[in-house]
Amino acid sequence: MHSYSLTAPAKINLYLEILGDRSDGYHELVMILQSIELADQIDIRSLSTDDIRVSCNHPQVPQDETNLAYKAAKLMTERFPDVFAQFGGVEITINKQIPVAAGLAGGSTDAAAVLVGIDMMWQLGLTHPELQELAQQLGSDVPFCIAGGTALATGRGEQLSPLPDLDSLYVVLGKYRSIAVSTPWAYKSYRSEFGDSYIRKTEDLESRAAQVHSGPMVKAIANKDGSEIGQLLHNDLEKVVLPAYPQVSQLRDTFQNSGALGVMMSGSGPTVFALCESQAQAQEIEQQIRSKIPDPDLDFWVTKFCSTGIRII
Ligand code: C5P
Question: CA-to-CA distance for 143 and 190, rounded, in angstroms?
Answer without folding.
Answer: 24
